[in-house]
Amino acid sequence: MRTPEKGAVVPHGDPAVVWAVPVSSVVFKIALLVVVVAAVGGWWWLRAGTTPGADARALVNDGARLVDVRTPEEFSRGHIEGAVNIPVSDIEARIGELGDKQRAIVLYCRSGARSAKAKALLESRGFTSVVNLGAMSSWPE
User: Is residue 65 part of a domain?
Assistant: First the structure.
């Protein structure tokens, strides 16, 4: 059996020897580090721009509208008292329900990703005081 040259195309059906090159532990560690940094960076990016729970509660106490952007099913299983449910998928169609674009709005969901998306959409439509609580669990008891 002949060993093909590096990079050669072997015709279908011809036997060939395939060489496996071992990955050094240094390369593996660097690859693992890149994956970990990307994961942590993604988590921090998701959390960027969230408002601490106590600050969000103070805004609501001062008249901000509290909006849960989760699905109706999630909302029915539990929500923050006083919240209105406008799923992120419906927010553009129901934007009129939010009223004055200068009124403060506090958004939340399960993890903060959907509320971040809703915040960006509302700000692009001219809402000037939108904050992202992030996860519903961030709301202080």
Answer: yes
